[in-house]
Design brief:
The chain has 427 residues and is mostly helical. The protein has a domain of 209 residues. The protein is built from 20 helices and no strands. The longest helix is centred in the first third of the chain and has 30 residues.
């Protein structure tokens, strides 16, 4: 089999795997809820203000939540298929991340205008629309901005719904240019670059709303009833990714060492650099490690935590691996010991798991730097949430951008100092 036909085969397998996830979600949902109940829950999800943290398992039920996530996957797969775009590590990260956030904030209603806005910008700039898939898909982190304007302001729907859709279209249009510009701020050491961008956009939007005496405050709606089935679904997904990667890699672990030596700094696409097999193996391993961390900490498995687990797994094709993630987990855990919040709360789990957005710092500067980054991230993440009021779902990406922007220049300066000291020593 030549290289081209092998790549085509791997692309089709990744498509089918993502399709299988969406079908599994729908069938699992039907096992728990009848169709009419699922549709009613789906309507509640799509008409909820959806500010961070709005657990759709509570708002719409498990069947409707799984349907919502499945439809997000299917919409993105249709776009990818229609444009004949290869599924790279970056796209795997985008699809799994948005599927995860469809458990707590992203829905069909608030995603489509943002995706349309980003792709419309590509058309205006006369670029292939697949060049803007990442800002389009990741830009749905601003979904709550759409939903809150449409359904959270107690205005007539004839005004608020079009206003929400227009806000989503505008947000989607400005995400691509801003995300390219803000990448320079943290130099690629914050993997959730669009999350940082969305945080800035959300901060500006909320500031304008507050000038109009509109209060935008984060929520805390969390599920406590579906831990077993959610744990089972994610564990099976991660094991399936591990198994598929081993099959594609000829039941060998070759390529993993190359991934684990990579710093993970943007843009590190493991599918392109090493191949689909090793990348999928890494995804399965990182997913199982992250799930194991939550269980070890006796943390909850709810909608937001599922979103974090799927995001970690997805980005294991696009920058994350055990070597650069574990120091971040260590740093966030260490910080939580000195924090008033419990080490196994939902907030602590989200900070630890999403904090791995800073994994490239550990990959580039070592374990101690990674622990420090995780520690600082824990200190900062709760303080940036009020700035955007929960309209940006990627709050850890917002925080991570500031941590990387602050810490990386200092680490580089320290590295240069020690290198000079070493070179100045007599032989």
């Amino acid at each position: 089999m030549n290289t081209q036909s092998a790549a085509d085969g791997h692309h089709r397998l990744k498509q089918r795997f993502l399709l299988l996830i969406s079908i599994t979600f729908i069938l699992t949902g039907l096992f728990f809820n009848p169709p009419l109940e699922i549709l009613q829950g789906f309507l509640r999800i799509n008409t909820h203000p959806s500010l961070l943290l709005s657990d759709y398992l509570v708002i719409g039920g498990i069947g409707a939540t799984l349907l919502n996530s499945a439809l997000i996957i299917l919409i993105e797969l249709v776009i990818i298929h229609y444009t004949q775009t290869r599924i790279t590590g970056a796209l795997l990260a985008a699809v799994l991340t948005t599927a995860g956030f469809a458990f707590f904030g992203t829905n069909v209603f608030n995603s489509l205008p943002i995706i349309a806005g980003a792709l419309f910008t590509a058309k205006l700039e006369k670029l292939p629309i697949n060049s803007y898939f990442l800002p389009a898909f990741f830009g749905t982190s601003l979904g709550p901005l759409v939903s809150y304007i449409a359904f959270g302001l107690s205005l007539p729907f004839g005004f608020s719904v079009p206003a929400g859709l227009l806000a989503g279209l505008a947000a989607g249009m400005i995400v691509p240019p801003l995300s390219s510009a803000f990448l320079r701020f943290h130099q690629g050491y914050n993997l959730y670059n669009v999350g940082f961008t969305a945080g800035i956009i959300g901060m500006v939007a909320v500031a304008v709303l507050r000038m109009l005496n509109v209060q935008v405050l984060p929520l805390s709606i969390l599920d406590t009833e579906h831990e077993f089935i959610l744990t089972l679904l994610t564990a099976l997904m991660f094991l399936a990714l591990l198994g598929l990667g081993l099959v594609l890699n000829g039941w060998k672990l070759s390529g993993l060492t190359e991934i684990w030596k990579d710093s993970g700094r943007l843009i590190s696409d493991f599918v392109i650099q090493v191949g689909s097999g090793p990348a999928l193996i890494n995804m399965g391993l990182v997913g199982l490690i992250s799930l194991g961390y939550v269980k070890l900490m006796r943390g909850p498995i709810n909608g937001p935590v599922i979103g974090a687990l799927l995001t970690l797994c997805g980005f294991a094709a696009f920058g994350k691996h055990p070597r650069n993630c574990i120091p971040i987990l260590m740093g966030t855990y260490l910080a939580s010991l000195f924090h008033l919040e419990q080490t196994n709360s939902t907030g602590a789990m989200l900070t630890a798991l999403f904090g791995t957005t800073l994994a490239p710092i550990a990959g580039r500067f070592g374990v101690l730097a990674g622990v420090l980054a995780g520690y600082l991230h824990t200190a900062l993440v709760a303080n940036v949430l009020p700035l955007h009021g929960g309209v940006n779902l990627y709050n850890n990406g917002f925080s991570g951008g500031f941590v990387a922007g602050f810490l990386v220049p200092l680490l580089e300066a320290a590295q240069r100092f020690f290198e000079r000291e070493k070179n100045d020593k007599p032989a």
